[in-house]
Design a protein that fits this description.
Layout: H1 36-57, H2 59-68, H3 89-94, E1 108-113, E2 123-127, H4 128-145, E3 152-155, H5 163-175, E4 178-180, H6 187-197, E5 201-204, H7 206-218, E6 230-234, H8 240-250, E7 254-261, E8 266-272, E9 280-282, E10 287-292, E11 306-312, E12 323-329, E13 331-332, E14 342-343, E15 348-349, E16 354-356, E17 359-361, H9 363-370, E18 376-385, E19 392-399, H10 405-423, E20 428-432, E21 447-449
Parallel strand pairs: 3-4, 3-5, 5-6, 6-7, 18-21, 19-20
Antiparallel strand pairs: 1-2, 7-8, 8-9, 9-14, 10-11, 11-12, 12-15, 13-14, 16-17, 18-19
Helix pairs in contact: 1-2, 4-5, 6-7, 7-8, 9-10
The structure holds 5'-O-[hydroxy(phenylacetyl)phosphoryl]adenosine (DLL).
The site of 5'-O-[hydroxy(phenylacetyl)phosphoryl]adenosine (DLL) has 21 residues, from helix 5, strand 7, strand 8 and strand 12.
């Protein structure tokens, strides 16, 4: 598509595109309702600004583009984005801690960082305008999913360097909600506050909401009796089966997805309609997504699966251009917000993929199949070992309390068969009693890969 260039873009000027606070938070904002053509011409203008701005203000982008022989001036059409090289976590790590920032520290108002369990943490930063945009987009997600101004919102995303807690917090405030900043953990306290404060909405990871449901049961309280009506869940992959599990557990609760990643902003990059529940719409007035083949880097068409790549269109503190997320999904046309494309559920991360005797497998595939067996619970872990030079997988899964061990063992046989016939992997299943596996307090760990453990530690 060719878009006529509009406003002039010079780039030491600050971002002219920060999202204004909504005038009526209960109503969709104008960008949310734009047509596809309007969104694409907005994207063209904003991309032009972003490319120049990053090139002029961040040495790492300048070096990357100079080395590739491209210049922001080469961007004459939305399709031209593809000539600019991808960036990745390594690109950001090299800039550790502050070399990726495009503004002086005096303009920075917040710094977050990834946990850094796999090495150096990734540092991300926000200016006043960035925080404004972030709050507005998270508020948009919450409203879209069914939270209303005036609702009490229990926020069980972790506060701190993780973007979940504070990102969700300011979004809910911006929507006009009364936020209960509970953070993650202290499950008994969570249960007590939900009972006493009677919030209409809850924000947490899907697996942590299951932990909270267990907390209710341990007190002999039926989770169906809570005041909760809307849950906005994200930060980890989850399936439609998990949505059903959560909605059934809490009775009248409606569970929607929210997606995001720190490098691109945090929660609120995409959000799901509470009416349609048909996957998250990516807010394309601020982010341009692409799907690429993770192996040969080629760009995939609408509906084709691959790795999600993002370009942020309006960020000031930390420009992010063609960032490889490692998240695997596909792009779909917008429905409730036709100008913005949707993303399918994330099936997993390319770096979380288990390769078991040549077969690729994701924990979400096991989740989907396990939850089709009523006798089995959503609490499971995958243990991978290599006892005799051959990879072996054990699914350790808890039975549900209402069923006997024999019934659960029968269901486990069916699950084993389904995993073999639908995923293609042989595995063993170990049925555990309820409450044996460690519970999630945030992002759950499903994979325990012991293949490269030193000999003697088996
Ligand atoms: O998890 C931001 C967030 C907080 C999103 C709260 C939603 C709610 P990071 O810690 O940087 O940021 O982790 C980002 O988490 O690349 C995905 O792999 C995964 N992820 C986030 N949301 C979803 C989701 C936050 N809805 C990484 N579905 C991403 C599946 C998700 N995976």
């Amino acid at each position: 598509m060719t878009v006529t260039p509009g406003t002039q873009t010079t780039c030491s000027v600050k971002n002219p595109y920060a999202a204004a606070a909504p005038t009526d938070p209960a109503q969709p904002d104008p960008e949310e309702l734009m047509s596809r053509d309007q969104i694409e011409s907005l994207q063209f203008e904003r991309l032009k600004w972003t490319l120049h701005y990053a090139y002029e203000n961040v040495a790492a982008y300048r070096e990357l583009y100079d080395e590739a022989g491209v210049h922001p001036g080469d961007f004459k059409d939305l399709d031209d984005l593809k000539i600019f090289p991808y960036t990745d976590k390594e690109f950001l790590r090299k800039a550790y801690p502050f070399k990726g920032f495009a503004t002086p520290m005096s303009e920075i108002r917040r710094i977050h960082a990834s946990s850094g369990t796999t090495g150096q943490p990734t540092v991300v930063a926000y200016t006043e305008n960035d925080l404004q945009t972030w709050g507005t987009l998270v508020a948009r997600c919450f409203r879209f999913s069914g939270i209303k101004p005036g609702d009490k919102v229990h926020n069980a995303y972790g506060y701190g360097l993780f973007t979940g807690g504070l990102g969700a917090h300011y979004g809910a405030e911006r929507l006009g909600c009364a936020v209960i900043p509970m953070s993650g953990g202290q499950t008994e306290k969570q249960v007590q506050l939900i009972r006493d404060f009677e919030p209409q909405a809850i924000l947490s990871t899907p697996t942590y909401l299951l932990t909270i449901a267990d907390g209710f049961r341990h007190l002999g309280v039926d989770p169906k009796k809570t005041s909760l009506r809307t849950a906005v869940l994200g930060a980890e992959p989850w399936t439609e089966e998990m949505r059903r599990e959560i909605e059934t557990t809490f009775g009248t609760l409606s569970a929607c997805d929210i997606y995001g990643l720190s490098e691109v902003m945090g929660p609120g990059v995409a959000g799901e309609s509470g009416e349609a529940k048909d996957g998250s719409h990516i807010w394309e007035d601020h982010f341009r997504p692409e799907i690429i083949d993770p192996f040969d880097d080629s760009i995939m068409g609408m509906g084709q699966p691959g790795e999600l790549v993002f370009t942020a269109l309006t960020k000031e503190a930390l420009p992010i251009i063609r960032y490889r997320t490692h998240d695997l999904t596909r792009l779909l046309p917008g429905t409730e917000r036709p100008g913005h494309r949707r993303m399918g559920k994330i099936t997993g991360r390319s770096d979380d993929m288990i390769i078991l005797r040549g077969v690729n497998l994701f924990p979400t595939q096991v989740e989907e199949l396990a939850l089709q067996q009523p006798e089995l619970s959503p609490h499971f872990a995958l243990e991978i070992t290599r006892p005799n030079r051959m990879d072996e997988m054990k699914v350790r899964i808890e039975r549900r309390e209402e069923f006997t061990i024999d019934q659960a063992e029968e269901a486990a046989k069916k699950l084993q068969h389904d995993i073999k016939s639908k995923i293609g992997s042989s595995c063993r299943i170990e049925v555990l009693d309820p409450d044996v596996l460690p519970r999630s307090v945030g992002k759950i760990r499903r994979i325990y890969d012991y293949r490269n453990r030193p000999k003697g530690n088996e």
